[in-house]
Amino acid sequence: MTVKVGLEEMREFLDEVFPQVRGTFGIDRMDAGGVTMRLYNHDRHLRPGGTVSGPAMFMLADVAAYVATMMLVGKQALAVTTNCSIDFMRKPAAGVDLLAMAEVLKLGKALSVTDVRLYSEGMNAPVARATLTYSIPPAR
Q: Which of 59, 119, 64 is nearest to 92 (CA)?
């Protein structure tokens, strides 16, 4: 698959279309093999017991799938999540960033299917795995 949006352009695009989460995520890698993103460690993402909350993990998986799709189809802010299945497998480590490794498995004209694995930074085993489908708006 051919990358249509570069790393710096994607960072600017996210800041432009989602200013409400500016500074929440980092994009570490973006190439034809996929995307590696991070959710910066912050107390607002924790749940009682000192672990990263499920909604914060979903948010990272969703944004990583969005970025992976946008890099291949071009900047289309109105692409939306149509399905997500997420398995929480182990407790994320507290006090470290959460990493997402996203790979687009299938890219069609209307839908994109992406696999995302989440890791606590420094851990080898994933803490969660998600499959997301994005609806791509028709060309005008």
A: 119
Rg (alpha carbons) of the chain, rounded to whole number? 14
- Nearest Cα residue to 10 out of 126, 1, 25: 25
DSSP 98: E
Question: Helices (H) and strands (E) in the chain — how many of each?
Answer: 2, 8
Unique residue bearing structure tokens 């929480």? 88
Comparing CA positions, the residue from 70, 85, 81, 72 lying closest to residue 16 is 70
The C-alpha atoms of residue 137 and residue 139 are separated, in whole angstroms, by 6
Q: Give per-residue pLDDT as tens, 79-134.
A: 999 999 999 999 998 889 999 999 999 999 999 999 999 999 999 999 999 999 99
Average pLDDT of the chain, as a whole number: 94
All structural domains of the chain, each given as residue ranges with its CATH number in brackets, are 7-135 (3.10.129.10)
What are the residue ranges of helices labelled H in the chain?
7-17, 54-73
Residue type, 2: T
Does pTM top 0.90 for this prediction?
yes
Query: C-alpha angle with apex 11: 9 to 15, nearest 5 degrees?
Result: 115
* Distance separating alpha carbons of residues 13 and 48, to the nearest angstrom: 33
